[in-house]
Structure formats: structure tokens, C-alpha cells
Design brief:
This protein is an alpha+beta fold and 552 residues long. It has four domains: 13-90, Ubiquitin-like (UB roll) (Roll), CATH 3.10.20; 104-204, Acyl-CoA Binding Protein, CATH 1.20.80; 212-305, Pleckstrin-homology domain (PH domain)/Phosphotyrosine-binding domain (PTB) (PH-domain like, Roll); 355-471. Helices cover 61% and strands 12% of the residues. α4 crosses α8 (192-203) and α10 runs antiparallel to α11 (487-551). Mean pLDDT is 80; it is low at 1-8 and 475-499.
Length: 552
């Protein structure tokens, strides 16, 4: 087979883009595919088994339309674009989300779509309910609240409240976040799927939940009513009130619904009841209304019948999955609790470790300080020891000096005593010398007097002798030669000798007196010098005593 033959056998395709609430996917579709083929491909890609709730929606000429399952994709009035865009959305809503939504993916897709409808104000919700719903949305997205991780401002980039609510109350973003966080903290321990289910259970009680609104008129000229189709039936609303219907037709009370051009007729099951007719703006609107009515009615009847084997299996699997998830969640919760306890214990241990490290650091610092103090003390001890040695040496020297001073003092005392004794002796000697000097002076005076008397006596004797000589021997004056035989002459010679001898004695006595006077002067001079020396020694001893007293 040639390559050209293979190319010819390859089917022609076209590209489509499927947009879900939170993702986008692209597929290549064969030209002959019907709507169901593309829908099944998307459901397989998503892992979705509860396909009866969903459909593929596209917009043409400003009107939202659902892709028909039994017709080829390219044969329907789809937009001419490449790739062709379809929105995968919930077409029909369950009456009780907790019982009917079995798969987690189904629940998640419904949660995202209903949340978007509330934020876009397609479903009205009171401000209090929006805060509670926002807290469940935050729980589904972020998990359990952790004040250490979820710091103020962590919701700044999340759209959680309708703009109508934000405009209605003059609150800052921080105030709204505080209100949402207060509820969010109460949802601790709730898993993501549980949080999403709680969100849907609150939302399904809202008046506009799951309702598709269409403008209608009771005549051809006015559009003053709204027709709503939901899982429970058909409702007629006034144009300004989408909350409380003026009239309702439950699916169980409707016998037939039909349309002819722009006219649509609702026949109640009670044949006596009035048939309700209304007009729409376009034929396509009637077709869309009829399509939604048929789908919701089928689901309504299906809920009231025994579940098919597939549904039973899915429910069993869902129960098993829920039980498994419950056990898993319990296990995870237990593990989380244990992990939190372990983390708290770890934090406690880390805190304790940090405390111990801090204490150890402080102890090390204290040890270092102690070591430094010990070193300083050692240095001080060494210095003190050296000072002690020096003091001991000084003390020894002082003791030696004291002993020396004592000895010196003793010597000084002894010397003082000796000096005093010498002084006393000197004083005695001085007294003796004074007495001796007085005595000698007196003797000298007596001697002088005696000498004077002797000289006077000698003079008198000489004068007397001279007188006698003149009287007895006048010729002796003329003749100086004497006769040796003359006795008188002999006596005269003897007297002369005696006079000469006496004169010699006087000279000798004078000489001795002069010599003793000189000796006395010499001794006095020496005694004065000795006294001066003694005074100097006494003055020096007094100075030494004063200095030794100050030194002690």
C-alpha cells in the first residue's frame, strides 16, 4: 500500500476547544462525529461518569445554546471559528446534591460553577450567606487554617464575595477578610470535598439555584413575565421578582409540553385545570425551553424510580469511596494531629533546645567570663603572691629593720645612756674643772699674793739690807772689793745667795703657775670641743629616733 493511499484513508478532522470552569482542553474531532461523540470524549478526559448533568454549550448570535447529542457537530449552528469553542457546564441540577452527586469530579465541577454564578450575581445570596460560603471556599482551597501560615492579606487576590455585597457595606478588604477568616477557622478538620459539599448544600437552598430564566409574555405584544425551569418544575415569575414564583408547575403535575412557532403550551395532568400558554421572543428559545424541560423531567422521573445497575454500582462505589476517604481522612487527620503534636513537640524541643543552647551559650559566656575572671584572679593571685612575697620580704626587711632599729634603739639608748653618763661625767668634770679652776685661780691669787708679798718682802729686805749696808759699810760704796775674812761680808754673801735662791723659787713658781694655766686652758678647749661633739652626737641620735619612729 502506497503512502498516498494511507493519506487518503486518514479521516478529516477539525479542532475544538473545551472550556471548563477552571481549565481548557483541545481535541481533534472527526468530521462525522456527532455531539455525543465529542461529549463522551470530554467526559472520558475528565474521568466523569455522571454525564447526564452536563452538556456542551456554545454561543451563536448572542444566544447560549446546548450542543445536540444526536446530530453531527458540524451540522449544527455552531460558530465558524478555529478551533470551535464549547463550554462544558452543568445543564441540569440535582434536587439533593448530597444524595445525587456521587463522583468527586462531579461535585467539584458543580462547586466551581455554582460559585461562579454566585460571584457573577446570577444566583442571589444574602451577605451573611456569602461570607459563610466564602469561608467554605477558602477551606476547600487552602485547607485548615494556620495563623502562622495564613497571615493577614492572604485572601487579597481571591474573589470570594459578589460585588453587590462589597458595594452594599462600607467595609475594607481587611474587614471582609477578618469576617471570612473567623468562619474559616471554625472549619478545621474538614476535607476539600466535604467543604465543597457543604458549600453546595447551602447553595441549593437559595431561591435562584439551578433555575434557567427565559423572558415570556402571556400575549404577543408584551414581555412582562419570566419562565424558570429547574429540577422541580416550571415556575412563572414577575419580571422584577426572581425569588418568589407567581405560579409553579411541578414535573409530576405536568401532562404535556408543546410549542408551535413562538407559542409554548403547558398542559397540567389534571384535565380540569387551565392550560397555560405563553409566547417567547424566538422559536429557538421555545426549542431550548422544551429541551431543558424534557431533560429535567427525565431526571425528575429517574430519581423516583429504582436505580439502574450502573447507578447502584456507582452509588456503591461512591459509598466505598466515601468510606475509604472517611477512613483516609480520619487517618490523615490522625496523622495530621500526630504531625501537629510532633511539630508542637518538635517546636517545644526546638524551643527547649534553643533555651538549652541559650543557656549553654550563657553558660559558655559565664564560663568564659569565669575563665577570664579566673585568669584575672590567677593574675591577681600571682600579683598578690608576688605582693605577698614582696610584703613578706618587706615585712622581713621591716622586721630586720625593726630589729635593727630595736638594736639601734637599744644601742641608741645605750649610747644615750653612755652619752648622758658622759655628759654627767663631763658635767662633773666641768664642775671639777670649774672648782679646780676656781681653786687654781684662788691658789694663783694666793700665789700671786704670796709672790707679791714675797716680792714686797724681798723689796723690803733688799731695802733694809741696802739701808744696813749703807749704815755699816759706807766705804763699800767707794771700794767694791771686800775682804774674804770678814764675817759680815760672808753673811752678806749668804743673804745674797738666799735672795737669789728665793728669787729662783719665785720664778719657778711663776713658771709652774703659767704652765698650769696653759694646761687649764688647753683642757678647757678640749673639754669644749668634746662638749660640742657630744651635742652633735645627741642631736644626731634625736634625729635618728624621730626617723625610726616615722619609719615604724
Amino acid at each position: 500500500m502506497s503512502i498516498r493511499g494511507l493519506k487518503k484513508k486518514q479521516p478529516k478532522t477539525f479542532k475544538v476547544k473545551i472550556v471548563t470552569v477552571d481549565a481548557e482542553m483541545e481535541f481533534s474531532c472527526e468530521m462525522k462525529w456527532k455531539g455525543k461523540d465529542l461529549f463522551d470524549l470530554v467526559c472520558r478526559a475528565l474521568g466523569l461518569r455522571e454525564t447526564w448533568f452536563f452538556g456542551l454549550q456554545y454561543t451563536v448570535k448572542g444566544m447560549c445554546t446546548w450542543l445536540k447529542m444526536d446530530k453531527k457537530v458540524l451540522d449544527q449552528e455552531i460558530p465558524k471559528e478555529d478551533p470551535i469553542s464549547f463550554h462544558f457546564l452543568a445543564k441540569f441540577y440535582p434536587e439533593k446534591v448530597e444524595e445525587e452527586l456521587l463522583q468527586e469530579i462531579t461535585q467539584h465541577l458543580f462547586f466551581l460553577q455554582v460559585k461562579k454564578q454566585i460571584l457573577d450575581e446570577e444566583i442571589y445570596c444574602s451577605p451573611e450567606a456569602t461570607v459563610l460560603l466564602a469561608s467554605y471556599a477558602v477551606q476547600a482551597k487552602y485547607g485548615d487554617y494556620d495563623p502562622n501560615f495564613h497571615e493577614p492579606g492572604f485572601l487579597a487576590h481571591d474573589e470570594l464575595l459578589p460585588k453587590r455585597v462589597l458595594r452594599q457595606y462600607q467595609l475594607t478588604a481587611e474587614m471582609w477578610e477578618e469576617k471570612i477568616t473567623a468562619w474559616y477557622a471554625e472549619h478545621r478538620g474538614i476535607a476539600r470535598d466535604e467543604a465543597e459539599m457543604n458549600y453546595l448544600k447551602i447553595a441549593q437552598d437559595l431561591e435562584m439555584y439551578g433555575v434557567n430564566y427565559f423572558p415570556i409574555a402571556q400575549n404577543k405584544n408584551h414581555t412582562d413575565l419570566l419562565l424558570g425551569v429547574d429540577a422541580k418544575g416550571i415556575h412563572i415569575y414577575s419580571i422584577n421578582n426572581r425569588f418568589s414564583p407567581n405560579k409553579s408547575f411541578e414535573w409530576s403535575a405536568i401532562r404535556n409540553i408543546s410549542y408551535s412557532e413562538k407559542e409554548l403550551t403547558i398542559k397540567p395532568l389534571d384535565k380540569k385545570a387551565e392550560v397555560f400558554k405563553f409566547f417567547s421572543s424566538q422559536l429557538k428559545v421555545n426549542k431550548l425551553i422544551l429541551q431543558l424541560c424534557i431533560g429535567n423531567h427525565d431526571l425528575f422521573m429517574r430519581r423516583r424510580k429504582v436505580d439502574s445497575i450502573e447507578i447502584q454500582q456507582m452509588k456503591a462505589q461512591a459509598r466505598e469511596e466515601k468510606a475509604r476517604k472517611k477512613m483516609e481522612n480520619q487517618r490523615l487527620a490522625r496523622e495530621k494531629q500526630l504531625r501537629e503534636e510532633a511539630e508542637r513537640a518538635k517546636e517545644e524541643l526546638e524551643r527547649r533546645l534553643f533555651q538549652l543552647e541559650d543557656e549553654a551559650r550563657q553558660a559558655n559566656e559565664a564560663l568564659l567570663r569565669s575563665q577570664e575572671a579566673a585568669e584575672l584572679l590567677a593574675e591577681k593571685a600571682q600579683i598578690a603572691e608576688e605582693e605577698a612575697k614582696l610584703l613578706a620580704q618587706n615585712a622581713a626587711e621591716a622586721e630586720q629593720e625593726r630589729q635593727r632599729l630595736e638594736i639601734t634603739a637599744l644601742k641608741t639608748k645605750e649610747e644615750k645612756r653612755l652619752m648622758e653618763q658622759k655628759m654627767r661625767e663631763a658635767e662633773l668634770i666641768a664642775v671639777k674643772l670649774v672648782k679646780e679652776s676656781d681653786r687654781r685661780a684662788k691658789e694663783a691669787e694666793h700665789l700671786k699674793q704670796d709672790l707679791h708679798e714675797a716680792r714686797e718682802a724681798e723689796r723690803k729686805v733688799k731695802q733694809k739690807l741696802l739701808d744696813i749696808t749703807r749704815l755699816n759699810y759706807p766705804h763699800m760704796v767707794k771700794y767694791p772689793q771686800y775682804s774674804p775674812t770678814d764675817t759680815r761680808e760672808a753673811n752678806f754673801d749668804k743673804g745674797s745667795i738666799k735672795l737669789d735662791l728665793k728669787d729662783i723659787d719665785l720664778k719657778r713658781l711663776s713658771f709652774e703657775i703659767e704652765r698650769e694655766r696653759l694646761d687649764y686652758l688647753e683642757k678647757s678647749r678640749k673639754f669644749e670641743d668634746r662638749l660640742k661633739e657630744l651635742k652633735s652626737e645627741i642631736h644626731a641620735l634625736k634625729l635618728e629616733e624621730k626617723q625610726s619612729g616615722l619609719y615604724s
